[in-house]
Amino acid sequence: MGLGCIANLNSVPFEGFMANGFAAGGQRTATQCLRFGTRIITETISRVDLSHCPFRYWREGQEEEDEESDTADTVIVATSASAKESGMSACAVCDGLNRPLAVIGGGGDSATEEATSKLTKYGAHIYVLVHRDKLRALDIMAKPLVDNPKISILWDTRWKNLWTRNVQTGSEKDLDVNRLFHDLSIHEPATAIFRTQIQTDPNGYIINTSVRGVFAAVDVRDKRYSQAITSVGSGCIAVLEAERLIVESQEKEMMGE
Ligand SMILES: Cc1cc2nc3c(=O)[nH]c(=O)nc-3n(C[C@H](O)[C@H](O)[C@H](O)COP(=O)(O)OP(=O)(O)OC[C@H]3O[C@@H](n4cnc5c(N)ncnc54)[C@H](O)[C@@H]3O)c2cc1C
């Protein structure tokens, strides 16, 4: 998602080239940015130095020490997060509409909540595949799942794609579902190149960039909502913060501070 759509800011959005598995353009288009004359660069950033301003960054293929870096006065990290396992969906609202669905490894708190609150709302019927004969989720979270008539829990189950096997009875069956969801809590934020330089939580989500001039927006810091509409708001806040910082710095420079 291009974030630097503010006129008169010399923003340089990089959209990556299959970065983190996404085609150029991310999951949205950047038409609005183009209207403001923004030039979007389809290259991946593979190395950054955020130790001081101007910040330095290197494009893929140029990350050697002696290669000259590009520089920026502010950086907005919006590299997104994706499902850890390819071929699986991790967005209940996006991919769940009116279809029979299966949640793989869905016995924990987050997956249980997601299956009950979102998948049942959108999917036709939900199969939750659980390794053991009980759920990992707390009882208070598990009860709505167990009681929901739209959900069938397949206990003691092993699976490969749509094939399932009950390890107690030995019975096997192919699930008749349109979509497989991995445990919906498992996403991987694309923050590897930033992790030693800005603060992340144990899963790699950026909590607080803690570096003045570096901002994080959208799915790299939001594991709760992850929707297009919330992305726009989060991106907009980051851009306005970056703009404010640049204007403040320019004013200080003019005042000779
Ligand atoms: C399959 C799918 C369907 C979805 N459907 C819906 C929907 O129907 N409704 C809805 O509201 N939401 C939907 N979403 C969620 C929504 O698209 C995201 O919440 C939103 O796009 C996140 O914005 P973002 O900027 O974090 O990521 P993205 O829009 O994915 O943009 C991230 C960009 O960063 C680039 N990038 C990553 N690493 C680097 C790097 N090192 N260097 C340079 N560039 C890099 C990527 O190439 C990409 O262009 C869907 C998501 C997915 C995956």
Cα shape: elongated
**What is the percentage of strand-forming residues?**
15-25%
User: Helicity, in percent?
Assistant: 10-25%
* Cα radius of gyration in angstroms: 22 Å
Sheet with most strands: 4 strands, parallel
Query: What structural class do the secondary elements suggest?
Result: alpha/beta
Count up the domains.
2
- Strand runs, count: 16
Low-pLDDT residue intervals, each spanning 5 or more residues = 1-7
* CATH classification, class level of the largest domain: Alpha Beta
- Terminal Cα span: 36 Å
Order of helices and strands: HEEEEEHEHEHEEEEEEEEEH
CATH architecture of the largest domain: 3-Layer(bba) Sandwich
What's the CATH topology name of the largest domain?
Answer: FAD/NAD(P)-binding domain
By CATH, the superfamily of the largest domain comes out as FAD/NAD(P)-binding domain
Estimate the mean pLDDT confidence. Answer: 82
Strand order of the largest sheet: 8-7-6-12
InterPro entries: FAD/NAD-bd_sf, FAD/NAD-binding_dom, Ferredoxin-NADP_redctase_2
Domain FAD/NAD(P)-binding: 60-235
Keywords: Flavoprotein, Oxidoreductase
GO molecular function: oxidoreductase activity
